[in-house]
Structure formats: C-alpha cells, structure tokens
Amino acid sequence: MIIRSLLRALLSFAVASVPALACDGYATRVSSENHLQPKSVQVGRLADALNASPYSSGIQFASSIKRGDLLLDITSYPQQAPELGTIRALMQIGRLVDDGFEQLVLVDNGRPLFTVSREKLRQVGCRFNWPKNTGDNPLLLMTEMVASLRRANTGEVLVAGSSAAPHQVVAIVLNEINPLWAAPGNEQPQQLLEEEDLQLAALDQSLLAR
Fold first, then answer.
1. What confidence tier does 16 reach under pLDDT thresholds 50, 70, 90?
2. Considering just the CA atoms, what is the radius of gyration of the chain in Å?
3. Four-residue CA torsion sign, 190, 196, 200, 204
4. Contact (Cβ atoms closer than 8 angstroms) between residue 139 and residue 5
5. Which of 157, 140, 97 is nearest to 121 (CA)?
6. Which backbone phi and psi does 107 adopt, to 5 degrees?
7. Distance CA 207, CA 201 (A)
8. For 135-193, how does the pLDDT look when each residue is reduced to its tens digit (9 = 90+)?
9. Which residues touch 196 (CB under 8 Å, ≥6 apart)?
C-alpha cells in the first residue's frame, strides 16, 4: 500500500510549458505532451512556471541566477501540500528547465542548503514522465534524485549511492530536506519519523495524488 501511494504521489505534479529541445545526450522517456517537453522552461522563468502550474498543490517558489548557480527557495508550503512535493519539483526541473545554469542550489532566505549539478538533474528528470507513469520507475528516480543531492556547506552526499530503499529515502526527505528547505516560515508541519515507522505513519496528505 505504501509503495502504491508513493507512486501516485510522485506522478501528481505537472508544469505548463511549450515544446522545445530534447534531452540531448541523456536517456529520455519521450512524450508528445506539451508539459513534458525537455528544456521548455527558461531558467529565468523557472519560479513563474512552477508557481503557475495547476498541479503544484499551492507550493510557491522563488528563483534567481547567480554566477551559474540556479537558486531555488520555497516561499510557501501549504499545509495540504504533499510532503514529497520537494523532490518531485526537482525531478521536474531536471526535465523542463533549459541549460542556462551549472548547478541547482536549494536555499532558504539566501542560505545555501543543498546542491545538485545540472547533469545529475538531467539524468533523472529526462526519464520522469507525469502524471501518467510512462517513464522510468518513479520510486527509483526519486532515490537517484536524493542520492544526487549534496550538503552545500560540506559537499557530502545525503545518502551513499542510489541503492537505498525507498523508505530510507522518504525518511531523508521528511527528516532532513523538508525541515530545512520547506519548513522555515511556512505552514507545512514537520514530523520527524524513524525509518521503521514509515509504514505506520499517516502520510496520506503527502503521498496521495491531490
């Protein structure tokens, strides 16, 4: 049941865009749908595209470019928004945003928290299709995405390799990424969960499609 809920949650976002370039040089799950066209969102308009999406569950972003870094902040995370919305947004960005940056930096009020290279974003995002599951396994992609993140202050990875179990990755999202990136100054309540408790936790709000 928990795995089915995760799959449904990972496929529930969409960002409006227009057809553009392909994911040249990266494994790609091709789609003719406009909202899945690779590199179709200009890097300078990333936050506008995410915020305008009817499938963003009300999550609001702010973005800017600084010396090749694409800075992305969460300015509002409504209580009803899915808790996995943070990672889904990264997977979508990897497919949709153009090449006008070197790395994505997740920030909170200008303070760098986590980084991921454009290459790693592309490797995951170009294989992610939503809301229909016509791409690679969303749980495996989510694991790869989290494994690609590094702590901005030390450069350390959050998880060693991409072979971690999905419940371990979800624990990292809920216990480390969300409290730092999504929680400060926002409405989303944060609850620290032990890995063994995930099967019993009430995650409907964050894992079910909305």
1. very low
2. 15
3. positive
4. no
5. 97
6. -125, 160
7. 11
8. 678 888 899 999 999 999 999 999 877 678 888 899 999 999 999 999 765 554 445 44
9. none
Token readout for 121 is: 């974003």
Place of tokens 């490797």: 123
Give the tokens for residue 136.
């690679």
pTM over 0.85: no
Summarize pLDDT for 41-90 with one digit per residue, the tens.
999 999 999 998 777 778 999 999 999 999 999 999 988 888 888 998 99
- CA 44 and chain centroid, separation: 18
The full length of the chain comes to 210
181: helix, strand or coil: helix
Q: Is 3 helix (H, G, I), strand (E, B) or coil?
A: helix
35 burial type by CB count under 10 A (0-12 exposed, 13-18 middle, 19+ buried): buried
Structure-block tokens of residue 44: 């300078």
All structural domains of the chain with their residue ranges: 2-207
